[in-house]
Design a protein that fits this description.
The protein is mostly helical and about 150 residues long. The protein has one domain. Helix 2 runs antiparallel to helix 3, helix 2 runs parallel beside helix 4 and helix 3 crosses helix 4. The protein is elongated. The model has no long low-confidence stretch (mean pLDDT about 85).
Amino acid sequence: MSDQQGMSLIVRVVTRWLFGLILVFGLAVALFGHLTPGGGFAGGTIVACAFVLAILAFGGARGPGATFARWASSLDATGALAFLALAILGYTAGAFLHQWAGKGEAFTLGSTPSIVLLNLAILLKVGAGLFAGFIAVALFEQTAESGKGADA
């Protein structure tokens, strides 16, 4: 993904405006997944879409997507380890992947704190994993295109 990539000024400006809103929406979907439709997978998909939009708008060398691309595999592993750690913590508390933390007031964010933490770990895993997959496909496509030019 070369520096020449990216889109017009209008697309880059709109992306700057929407990027933070998409991230906040993805985080909200994950945080409130135990109360509403959504959860960590849906939130992670939305977050990954925000970074894909940034890569498409700014190109691979600039913007928030370029920074996230360098950290994607590490964040993917961190999300998996966080999920595993929370599952083991629940197992040591006597309930594997069940509500091991105290319950809060019903229908609030704190009503099931361990599920919120699990959703955030899944958000990190899915968001980074999907974005890393996008980067891998983009790099493969770029390599395939550069190979065609050398053969012709």
